[in-house]
Sequence to fold (253 residues):
Amino acid sequence: MKLLLRGAAVGAVIIVLAVVWAAWPAAGVPILGYHKVSETEEAYSVPPGDFERQMAYLADAGYTAVTMAALVSHLTAGTPLPAKPVVITFDDGYADNYLTALPIMARHGMRATVFVVTDFLGERPYLTWAELKALRAAGTEIGSHTLHHRALPELPAAERLRDLAMSKEGLEWRLDAPVRFLAYPFGSFDAATVAALKATGYRGAVGTMPGLNKPGDDVYALKRINIPRSRFGMLEFRLRLIRANVYFKLGLS
Fold:
């Protein structure tokens, strides 16, 4: 009996240590990937109440939201970041990023990078140009999600270059600010796509590969933690962060 109790105690300690190891923040930087913040019943639509709890959790846990520019500068040149940095991103450019998500983030001292599909702007449910400008004026970093949201590797070379260049130049002209980063539509890219990004002046890009990011990583293949509509509340959100930690620590990402 004593041996059984001792074995159970040892097993419990091992489990506790494993949980602590998995949950303890790794040295890599997480990028969170959102789309909508809305009550709409869609896989990539996070209800405002859930989003509020997620931002509160990040703030209470000591995370500081940083821009893609700050992250890439850290990864490539060693520029210091806060102790617990996180990058919060949105894809597509939905109006609720401005109308709903921005006020929530402001309440918790968070900021975001919004990757917009240029040709979608001005038609609901997407941002108007005026809203996009207001979003940027409020401290949001703006990036490109291409001109038409087509898988870049599937486009002819000339059309791919045109898509990347025109989305970047159009945003820069209307916002009077540089646009340096891109989110790959469908997370799809290849060597030719990366070459086109470099040729058109982008400094980095995010995909959909899970994990964390560290100095020395390819800044044109940055990893993100996808945050869809939750079925299990905050537990699911925390488990997604823990899974990224585990992948990073085990060298799987």
Notes: The chain has a mean pLDDT of 91.
